[in-house]
């Protein structure tokens, strides 16, 4: 009896220690430990998960899309249409390799949707909507208004031509994510101006590739980009981010950690699209063609006093900060901590690893 109780107490103590040991949501300094750290912190059985999400994950279904007819549907549009309004189960749309010329909208009634592709032959969802024909917001090849969206091994593309100075409304979004609590793993986003509209909500991007020329990651969201490649395709002036925070009470912002910036152009990290624009680059490689000023006020000098543009432990020839604009900051450990943590996107309540199919 006593031995049994001792065993039980030891076991409970083990569980407790084990749980506290894994609950370290601070992004590791060492990039080689990220994958294991993320697995430890995205256990699908953990107790903090939103109840509806936990329930949806217990009832996962898979539907298949194959453009040659060997699946449940021939295109993604039909697969999305098959999901019921008020969907309550994790619905994985497994998309076979190929190019899908479709313009997709997942409305807010269809939660818990996952797009899943083959990592060795990623399906490409491709369209050419522009701001002129649809408005920037509605130009997206794929637009998601629902919560708990995930995508893994998918290429999102807008093939509208590169804007020239004479073109009106040539902005063309490849993906707009407006739902809460979305994760993208190993996805690729191709466009020029306004490639990725990271519109609103808490979002996580890992191992992604994002290509564009100006403001190619923009929106009002609260997001972490981990181990992503940001490829400038700019000829001349280029900007990676245009974050749209406009009120000091909001905790929104874009955080880039362990990323790589590359490509051409006279490149800036971000510009002050809205007064409280907030962006942090940490542990990220910055190339020699990054403009030494780093950031741009987008013609709103009064935003200089209110934006929050931070850099922390970046490397590469572009990471030298002594010629930066005077409204950018090199973050202290204490200032960086808030951003370099999965708690910044409240991940403990929703972030899950990519599915294994
Ligand atoms: C999807 O496929 C259905 C028939 O299988 C077709 O009627 C529809 O036009 C297709 N939609 C798109 C956007 O390709
Ligand atoms: C998209 O491409 C088609 C031809 O494939 C063209 O007719 C259409 O005008 C293009 N749309 C936009 C918005 O550029
Ligand atoms: C920052 O630099 C600009 C010139 O680029 C100057 O007008 C402004 O007064 C400076 N602000 C501060 C707070 O030093």
UniProtKB/TrEMBL annotation:
Its EC number is 3.1.1.11. It catalyses: [(1->4)-alpha-D-galacturonosyl methyl ester](n) + n H2O = [(1->4)-alpha-D-galacturonosyl](n) + n methanol + n H(+). The active site is at residue 215. GO terms for molecular function: pectinesterase activity. Its main location: secreted. GO terms for biological process: cell wall modification; pectin catabolic process. It comes from the Eukaryota. Keywords: Aspartyl esterase, Cell wall, Hydrolase, Secreted, Signal. Residues 63-347 form the Pectinesterase catalytic domain. Residues 1-23 form the signal peptide. It is found in: Secreted, Cell wall. PROSITE patterns: PECTINESTERASE_2. Pathway: Glycan metabolism; pectin degradation; 2-dehydro-3-deoxy-D-gluconate from pectin: step 1/5. Belongs to the pectinesterase family. This is Pectinesterase. The lineage of its organism: Eukaryota, Viridiplantae, Streptophyta, Embryophyta, Tracheophyta.
């Amino acid at each position: 009896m006593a031995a049994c109780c001792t065993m039980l107490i030891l076991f409970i103590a083990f569980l407790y220690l084990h749980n506290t040991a894994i609950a370290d949501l601070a992004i590791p300094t060492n990039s080689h430990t990220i994958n294991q750290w993320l697995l430890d912190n995205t256990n699908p059985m953990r107790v903090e998960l939103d109840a509806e999400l936990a329930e949806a994950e217990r009832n996962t279904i898979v539907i298949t899309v194959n453009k040659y007819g060997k699946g449940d549907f021939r295109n993604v549009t039909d697969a999305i249409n098959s999901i019921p309004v008020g969907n309550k189960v994790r619905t994985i749309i497994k998309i076979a390799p190929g190019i899908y010329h479709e313009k997709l909208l997942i409305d807010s009634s269809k939660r818990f949707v996952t797009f899943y592709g083959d990592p060795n032959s990623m399906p490409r969802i491709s369209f050419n909507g522009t701001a002129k024909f649809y408005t920037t917001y509605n130009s997206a090849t794929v637009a998601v208004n629902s919560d708990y969206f995930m995508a893994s091994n998918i290429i999102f593309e807008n093939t509208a031509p590169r804007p020239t100075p004479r073109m009106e409304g040539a902005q063309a979004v490849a993906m707009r994510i407006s739902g809460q609590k979305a994760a993208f793993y190993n996805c690729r986003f191709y466009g020029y101006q306004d490639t990725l509209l990271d519109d609103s909500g808490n979002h996580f991007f890992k191992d992604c590739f994002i290509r564009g020329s100006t403001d190619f990651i923009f929106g009002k969201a609260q997001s972490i980009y981990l181990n992503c490649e940001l490829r400038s395709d700019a000829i001349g002036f280029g900007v990676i981010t245009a974050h749209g925070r406009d009120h000091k009470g909001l905790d929104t912002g874009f955080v880039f950690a362990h990323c790589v910036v590359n490509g051409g152009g006279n490149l800036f990290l971000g510009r002050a699209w809205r007064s409280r624009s907030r962006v942090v680059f940490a542990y990220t490689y910055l190339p020699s063609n990054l403009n030494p000023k780093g950031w741009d006020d987008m013609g709103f000098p009064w935003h200089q006093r209110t934006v929050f543009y931070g850099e922390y432990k970046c490397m590469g020839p572009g990471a030298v900060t002594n010629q930066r604009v005077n409204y950018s900051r090199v973050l202290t450990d204490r200032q960086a901590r808030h951003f370099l943590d999965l708690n910044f996107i409240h991940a403990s309540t929703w972030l899950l690893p990519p599915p294994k199919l």
